Amino acid sequence: MTKITKLTDSFLKNIKCEDGKKFIKFADPSIKSLYIFVYPSGKKIFKIRQANDTYIKIGEYPLLSLAELRELALNAFKMKTKGQNIKNAKRQKFGEIYDEVLNLNIKNNFSKKTIQRGLNYKKSIFKCFENRNITEIKRSEIVEVLKLLEDKSATLEKAKVWINKVFEYALQLEIIEFNPVASIKNSIVFKKPKATIHQPTLLDEKEIKKYIHTLKNADIKESHKRLLMFNLLSAQRPGNVINATWDEFDLKNGLWIISAQKMKMRREHIIALNTQALKILKEQKKIKVNDYVFAGSSKKGHNSENITCNLNKRLGYKGIQTAHGFRAMFRSIANEQQKEHGISMDIAELCLAHEQKNAILKAYNRGDNIELKRKLMQWWGDYIERIAGKI
């Protein structure tokens, strides 16, 4: 083993492995049990020697600076005195742990939208923490950052979910001793959120009829008209409609089956389609250009997420009717007309893929639920045709 009296950047840059040897190693004289292994390939790996004469890699020079590698080593020794796993010493930067959480979510098939949201938070609101040691980030600092989102309560909550994931992950790996996010009480440290702004929707029959007639006669693509009508008739989230692919549909049995990874609640969702919605799908099938039901202008893609907002704006309904508002329209009118259709509102919630809290309904078998959904959704399609004419 090579002995040195002082370890410097100059020495590390110039040291090479002797010919014929698998590696050479030498100890850092300033930190006990920290060794540098130099390989014929030119790699210079810093490792910590353990009591059983085995070594744990903590990093590579010059990918990490000499100062950073020494800091990692010192952190490892601190963790060792606390009985923690020193293998986690090299994973103490907030940004690196955040990346691990992102990759884990990708492997677990979280939606692209969810992953992109997490990535956006890392690059924006949490960028100030990126190169910080996660063990040194205080609860008060996290609160200060989240306060920047106080006026956007929904965004604040989603950002908090993501940073909580990062700290919880670090806690499970024993990189930190406690999760500072878990004890943040929104009602105490953040301003009370403003009243929820619901998605604009029409509820008066005459206004709904006027909207549909405006849509039918609009100077827009027929496929765009069908997209909005299908959204209204199915009462599903616009994102699911825009991203719908042909393999999700069982046209013979009138079913639309959305996989768990595409759903907000991460559960498979089965929609019973009314005859009016099926008619639209059959028309779309005639102009199929790719795997997407409502294909975009490119040969492989679908329409943008903003397409429904832009279409309603062109129809003159900006701030009056949204595609997401069709869901509120369906729910409100189904509730008002319950005596007419005779279906429990619990079934309406299932049609909307809302979490089901009714224990009895949860016990229903899948077939019973589908048939009840089918009856309610057919009533909805017939109701729309009754007030607005043939679809």
Automatic annotation (TrEMBL):
The keyword DNA-binding applies. GO terms for molecular function: DNA binding. InterPro entries: CB, DNA_brk_join_enz, Integrase-like_cat_sf, Integrase_catalytic, Integrase_DNA-bd_sf, Integrase_DNA_bind_dom, Integrase_recombinase_N, Phage_int_M. Residues 198-377 form the Tyr recombinase domain. Keywords: DNA integration, DNA recombination, DNA-binding. GO terms for biological process: DNA integration; DNA recombination. Gene3D superfamilies: 1.10.150.130, Integrase, DNA-binding domain, Intergrase catalytic core. Residues 92-171 form the Core-binding (CB) domain. The keyword Signal does not apply. PANTHER family: PROPHAGE INTEGRASE (PTHR30629), PROPHAGE INTEGRASE INTS-RELATED (PTHR30629:SF2). Belongs to the 'phage' integrase family. This is Integrase. It comes from Campylobacter aviculae. The lineage of its organism: Bacteria, Pseudomonadati, Campylobacterota, Epsilonproteobacteria, Campylobacterales.
